[in-house]
Amino acid sequence: MGVINYLLELLFPPRCSLCGELMDAEKDKRCFCDRCRAVWEQEKQALCPGCRRDPRHCSCMPKYNKNRTADSFRSLVFYDSENVKKLIHKVKTERNAALDDLMAKELAAAVIKYNKIDNDSVLVYPQRSAKSIKKYGKDHAAQICRKVSELTGIPVFDGIKHKRGAEQKTLTAKERGPNAAHSYYIPDKYKNGIRGKRVIFIDDVVTTAATSVVSAALCKANGAKSFSVLSIARTT
Ligand SMILES: [Zn+2]
Ligand SMILES: [Zn+2]
Questions:
Q1: Which of 76, 96, 103, 108 is 20 to 30 A (C-alpha) from 85?
Q2: In angstroms, what is the span from residue 68 Cα to ligand 1's centroid?
Q3: Domain residues for 89?
Q4: In this predicted structure, what is the pLDDT of residue 114?
């Protein structure tokens, strides 16, 4: 181990991304301690109370997708438990490479498993508001999407841009629909880039699906062939 790494680990010893427990620096380049790893694996097997399917196969449509603007929704886990909520909060607000890497790795595996990949496939993410990028020092959706791109070789389409609007999470479900419609747009110079593409939309969490549905409508209005949503978590 290099001296710099040694000093860094002395100052910032690796901690479990869920429970915060200190982990062995030598053997743990991992995201979770053994106990929390088992919790994560269990979350992936949880069944939707509505359709009794796991998060990759749940067929329930989110509130704003009743007319199927987006073609499908899959996620790694359901956004129901406190553990998952805690993890998503960390993804949004913390600089945690081990957590981002694990999420990107599992999303990449799901991208390959559940999508027909060809030269028309493209990864898309919703850009975060300037205010929020300033607050947290990162655009987590962009970062994770780029990591998924590195792992899968599928290019990223950077054209879903955020207008200034309020952050989604501060709004009620009723306010989110129209707000999302006003918050995202595709600038003219990007519009040709989405024509004929099979979009795989990567997001951290899907609740009402206002963001995904608006993005799907924007992409399809500009000629996208299909729009599949893949998130880390979604509500049941
Ligand atoms: Zn732990
Ligand atoms: Zn379901």
A1: 108
A2: 38
A3: 53-234
A4: 97
